[in-house]
Amino acid sequence: MDPVSRGTFEEESAQSTWAILVAAGTGERLGSGRPKAFAALAGRPLLAESLERLDSSDWVDAIVVAAPPEWEEPAILLAEELVASKVTAVVTGGATRADSVRIALAEVSEEALVVLVHDAARPLVDDAVIERVLGRLDGTVEGVVPALEVHDTLKRVASEVVVETVEREGLVAVQTPQAFVADRLRAAYAADLAGATDCASLVERQGGRVAVVEGDPRLAKVTTAADLERVEQLLDRSDP
Ligand code: CTP
Ligand code: MG
Q1: Beta-sheet pairing, 87-92 with 4-5
Q2: Are strands 40-41 and 44-45 parallel, antiparallel or unpaired?
Q3: Alpha helices, DSSP H only, in 144-224?
Q4: Closest CA to 18 of 117, 141, 123, 93
Q5: Phi, psi angles (nearest 5°) of residue 204
Q6: C-alpha span between 131 and 25 (Å, rounded)
Q7: Which numbered ligand comes closest to the C-alpha of 51?
Q8: Which residues sit with Cβ closer than 5 angstroms to ligand 2, an ion?
Q9: For position 13, what pLDDT does the model report?
Q10: With a 6 A CB cut-off, is 227 part of the ligand 1 pocket?
């Protein structure tokens, strides 16, 4: 399906920070019988939470959503229901997360200066973390990721037996939203995407400097049904 465009391109093109919201995964591990982005979170599709939050952020000028195949129309309807007026295009995602980002990136204006990439699977994105990642993108780095320190002991395991205990010093667990200089992200996505688990790793492969800022425990990814319950509880206590 062709990308579905809304609004006039001329209106959007002068704006500088574009967000890509990747929501095209199948949600295999959640197993809700529908794509994860449309699993129910407090009575709404999971996607609604991050979409509403990005749309209402003063830091974000325009949004491109990567939806699962066959779920483009529900994604457009959801954006309309939420009056998420910054949504400029809904594209059909690809086979991997990296493919979905590449497809969405093609809909980002040439004039965008900064691209923020966020997982719909992390519903509780807020302005504080958006401000931290964008604020660190100061011309000395090409990308910025939010991350949390790792406190558990880490071990490499094969066939359920420990191969080694990994030195924890200097290791962090990386989240989204990740912010990039638009041109650097485009260059990174023009290359081979194999093995890329996040956007930053592609920028790193090309020698790009990626800074790390403080993440947020509430941004932990929804992978399983237990994660969904945990986010639902956090939602009760958080300001939308
Ligand atoms: N994603 C995507 N396109 C894909 C795969 C993933 O846009 N082909 C998105 C997901 O929608 C999610 C984020 O990337 O917001 C992180 O992926 P993950 O948590 O692994 O979600 P799923 O791939 O849907 O889940 P699973 O791996 O359990 O199937
Ligand atoms: Mg996945």
Answers
A1: antiparallel
A2: antiparallel
A3: 182-189, 199-205
A4: 117
A5: -60, -45
A6: 27
A7: 1
A8: 25
A9: 45
A10: no
Q: Is the CB of 24 inside a 6 Å radius of any atom of ligand 1?
A: yes
Whether 219 lines ligand 1, by a CB cut-off of 6 Å, is: no
Dist. CA 149–CA 199, nearest whole Å: 20
Measured distance CA(65)–CA(79) in Å, rounded: 10
Look at residues 65, 105, 91, 96 and name the one whose alpha carbon lies nearest to residue 187: 105
The tokens of 174 are what? 């990386």
Pocket test for ligand 1, best of 92, 119, 227 (most atoms within 8 A of CB): 119
> pLDDT digits over 182-240, tens only?
999 999 999 999 999 999 999 999 999 999 999 999 999 999 999 999 999 999 776 55
Span 84-115, pLDDT tens digits: 999 999 999 999 999 999 999 999 999 999 99
pLDDT tens digit string along 1-29? Answer: 445 554 444 444 456 999 999 999 999 99
- Asked if 178 contacts 168 with a C-beta cutoff of 8 angstroms, the reply is no
Spacing, Cα 121 to ligand 2 middle (Å): 10
Q: Which residues pair with 63 in a beta bridge?
A: 19, 87
* Residue 206 confidence (pLDDT): 95
Per residue, what are the HEC states of 76-124? Answer: HHHHHHCCCCCEEEEEECCCCHHHHHHHHHCCCCCCCCEEEEEECCCCC
Phi, psi angle pair for 120, to nearest 5°: -60, -20
Residue 205 beta carbon below 6 angstroms from any ligand 1 atom: no
